């Protein structure tokens, strides 16, 4: 039975937070505890929006009142000025403003927000997060040294990072694309945030986040590094996650240890469905469907969004078959079916999808 946990979909997973809050470095521990506390504030918001109907979402600004006649990216950027009261944040920039902001973080979120909107619209004909032209609202400079970024159900919020372990959470387009994709998932499959469904929720965000990054950089599957958050996690050898080789994004980090993600089902981590167990390992086991997508896209060659991306988007938006409590096997079946519908039952694309899931041992 689904318990609909209200765990917030942050880019920094609990296993990283726990390492830092238990650190012998008191400054790091104090900041990690504060960052974790601040994240809790938004848990009820996310869970509330998960259960609201369209009218309620519209009234609360979590969904557009009506479909935009002429689709175009609409963004707003707010400056929290290191405060935690979002109602006091000041509007820094919005689409149509004649003067561009000089703030680097504002520039980052404008660029990445536009890149995200463009991928969804130009490739999949999706008009913003809700497919109705929703304004993408982004709040920068949240709190002091806040180590996270997240979608709270109706807007994006970014911390500046502690500048010791993490830099600004606006530094990576894939992180911004990842979190905004949680919004897309919210409006589509609305996957539960627990067990394998929760891991799929995280994986969809990584998959689309990495495609947004690769498209912004015009990288094909062979040239791309397949790393998420390589600028946010400070140090040339480190990134938050790797789709190409889950478990290798960071190794022997002096404060975080080694990336715990498995790439295949034989290393699946049967964690308890509790907060301390990351609700069944949603951030850890997401490495498995991530790897299946990587292998699929790599074997198909070219740009990841041209074929593999189309298949995964078709699966995400097939709400008749991708249910809220879907498993890895469910997504495997759906992606194979979608590949056949898009490219033919006996196509190379179907074989690539099957080979991707086989490589992940699903």
From TrEMBL:
The UniProt record lists the Peptidase M4 domain at 73-186
| Enzyme Commission numbers on file | 3.4.24.-
Protein localization: Secreted
Report the Pfam families cross-referenced here: Peptidase_M4 (PF01447), Peptidase_M4_C (PF02868)
Cofactor(s) recorded for this entry are:
Zn(2+)
Q: Which residues cross the membrane?
A: none
Main location group: secreted
- Enzyme class, UniProt record, top EC level: hydrolase
The Peptidase M4 C-terminal domain covers which part of the protein?
A: 189-362
Q: Does the keyword Zinc apply?
A: yes
Could you tell me the keywords of this UniProt record? Answer: Hydrolase, Metal-binding, Metalloprotease, Protease, Secreted, Zinc
As for what it does, the entry says: Extracellular zinc metalloprotease.
Q: Which family does it belong to?
A: Belongs to the peptidase M4 family.
What is the protein name given in its UniProt record?
A: Neutral metalloproteinase
Please name the source species. Danxiaibacter flavus
